[in-house]
Amino acid sequence: MPSPSATSVTRRRQRSTRLTVAVALLALAALTITAAVASGSWLVVVLAAVLGLALGAAATKITHSELLQTRRDWARDRAEQAQAFRVESEKRAEENAEFREHMDAKLADRVQAVQELEAALAAAHQRAADAVRRRGEEARRAAQAELRGEQLEAKLQAVEADAAEAAIRVAELESELDAVRAELEAERTSWTGAQSA
Fold first, then answer.
1. How far apart are CA 55 and CA 22, in angstroms?
2. Which pLDDT tens digit goes with each residue over 12-48?
3. Cα–Cα distance for residue pair 154/165, rounded to 1 Å
4. How many Å apart are CA 91 and CA 97, to the nearest integer?
5. Is residue 66 a contact partner of residue 16, using CB atoms and an 8 Å limit?
């Protein structure tokens, strides 16, 4: 099958040839009538007029057939163009369907990713809330332990003060005991000396 450019070139040549022939026929008719009028004979003029009419009719017929051929060519071109547009439209419809499927799959992936991220975010929020709660409990325990430590420190200081006072009292009592023992020893010595005398 010839290419569209080759077909259009062929058509242009045919059109040019047909139109050239039609113009040549009209020119021949005009020339014949002019020559007949110049001859001055009415019979030659009438025959030239009939010949001119026949040549004009032939030129009109050639031009008419050229017009019909051009219209048929245009109709065929429009049909081919419509067929090409239909094929292109079907191709675009297929491409659009593929694109839509691709975008639907991509959207589904994105939705799934968003759902997974939302689940992970909810889990992270729960872990953060648990950590904050545990930290609060630990802080409360630490505060209680610190308070108990302060109370124990105060008790320890009180006990140490009591122990210091007790140590002082023990030292005083030991001193008194030593004095009493010394007195007792002195009395024993004087008693023993009195009995031996």
1. 9
2. 445 568 888 888 888 988 898 888 888 888 888 888 8
3. 16
4. 10
5. no
